[in-house]
Amino acid sequence: MIKAVFPHKDLLGIRNLGRDEIVMILDTAESFKEVSRRPIKKVPSLRGQTVINLFYEPSTRTRTSFEIAAKRLSADAVNISASTSSVVKGETLADTVRNLQAMAPDIVVMRHACAGAAEYVAGIIAAGVVNAGDGAHEHPTQALLDLLTMRQHCGRLEGLRLAIIGDIAHSRVARSNLWACRTLGIHARVCGPPSMMPRDLADFGEVEVCSRPEDAIATADVIMMLRLQLERQGTGLFPSLEEYARRYGLNRERLARAPADAVVMHPGPMNRGVEIAGDVADGRRAVILDQVENGVAVRMAILYLLGGSRS
Amino acid sequence: MTPDQTILDARGLEVVLGRMAHEVIEHHPVLDNLVLVGVRSRGVHLAERLQCRLAELSGVTLPLGILDITMYRDDLGLGAGNPVLERTEIPFSLEEKTVILVDDVIHTGRTVRAALDGLMDFGRPRAIQLLVLVDRGGRELPIRPDYVGTHVHSSPRDKVKVRVGERDGFDAVMVEYGTRGQEANL
Asked: Residue A34 and residue B81: Cβ atoms within 8 Å?
């Protein structure tokens, strides 16, 4: 029997994954997709295992996706959100996770506003840790579901041309995807207001910076629009929502400048009329709901592979 | 270790498949409600050949599904790594169907147990029958095949190898006998 050995206790980021490891995750996810289309959407692979979703930041899609993934694998999923936990009573992160560890979970899925939080927790507890977003650092399962969607629509990953448009500097989605681009040989172009470009872009290898979105998408196979974090309004990073929409938003006219078979992705939640026009988001070329579907499969794959690596 | 002993050569394997196809028809004069499901990997190729044989004999091409039992294994999480998962493709309902489950070798019965659990998740079949090319004994679960190509008496240390042209370049059933030690003859 051929075994898929995923040589990590945790999934903390894309940066430290090798090409073969990423492909193993995507192939495993591909096989899990079928489970979600069955009349009985449940397989016993993780029976008796416990998955804790520990979310210190609001999330609907990611948390639900992890919860469904765990349940479709027959694991018991427990959700904790910071607003209803003893965090509000002043407990430290380390104390919280040590207490959780005492209840013997197998995997802890964690989202936190601080970069490096998942790695910190992974060093404290024996359970596997999956980073579901840590500050502006990484969001590995989002990048993996993006990759699965790109591979599904373009048939390959190496040599693809990806345009990422928006607030690159504050986006963990962009960062995780840029690490994946470097590892897999995807040509990345980024575009956004100069105030939203990271200073450390050179770390990601050969990333092209475009000042106009038209240039970024001109030869793109995939266009990834990032969510404009509206809470940054008034911080001087961009003048106004209208101005941002006009300069960087993806509307029908702008999309017409991209190759005819380019697909449009968005990690959600969308600001319709800001970074993406409603008719583009609902249009034929948007694969945004495929991303969501693939998200469950990718998270099933991660839980399955980490389940096999711990013993 | 002794050299492989051939139990069935290519011709023998075809004869056995043909005989099993006749047996299936004998049990099911009307094939309309039958479907075939092959267990990955070699069970799929055997199921495809059976599908051809049955079509030649009866004029009916039965639906054919592919089942990967990995998700249903009872040894997940034991040892390093989990088995590589491959796709299950059963693009039709099993509701009220009679399923003929096809695998290459039956030994402990654990694969079949996992396959039965898997099939049940695609609906409630009217019945499931089991067809295997080789029954090598050594059952650990109360499971018995309905159609058997050939019996091989083996000990747990022996390796029963099925080879099919689609995957291996040639057809054969062979046994590699392990060194006989303390274990009882089964």
From this structure: no
Which pLDDT belongs to residue B186? 39
CB A45 within 8 A of CB B76: yes
Beta bridge partners of A54: A80, A110
Q: How many Cβ atoms sit within 10 Å of the Cβ of residue A284?
A: 8
Q: Which of A 12-71 lie inside 8 A of B, CB atoms?
A: 27-28, 30-32, 34-35, 38-40, 42-46
Q: Degrees (nearest 5) of the Cα angle B176, B71, A310?
A: 90
pLDDT for A91: 87
* A111, β-bridge pairs: A55
**Chain A: closest CA distance from residue B39 (Å):** 14
The per-residue pLDDT for range A100-119, each reduced to its tens digit, is 999 999 999 999 999 999 99
CB A164, CB A126: distance < 8 Å: no
Domains in chain B, please, with CATH? 5-25+33-71+85-176 (3.40.50.2020)
Q: Within chain B, which residues score under 70 in pLDDT?
A: 1-2, 79, 180-186
Residues in chain A: 311
Q: Decide: helix, strand or coil at residue A78.
A: strand
Q: Are A73 and A304 in contact (CB under 8 A)?
A: yes
pLDDT tens for A189-201 read 999 999 999 998 9
- Cα A11 versus chain centre, distance: 12
* pLDDT above 60 (res A124): yes
Q: Which of B72, B86, B121, B124 to mutate to test the interface with A (most CBs of A within 10 A)?
A: B121
Taking CA atoms, A234 is separated from A70, A194, A230, A240, A273, in Å, by 40, 16, 9, 8, 18
Angstrom distance (rounded) from CA A173 to CA A227: 10
* Separation in Å, CA B120 to CA A14, A30, A180: 37, 22, 39
ipTM summary value: 0.81
What is the pLDDT, as a whole number, of residue B184? 44
What is the residue-averaged pLDDT of chain A?
A: 94
On the 0-12 / 13-18 / 19+ scale of CB atoms within 10 A, A9 is: middle
User: A262 — phi, psi (to 5°)?
Assistant: -70, 140
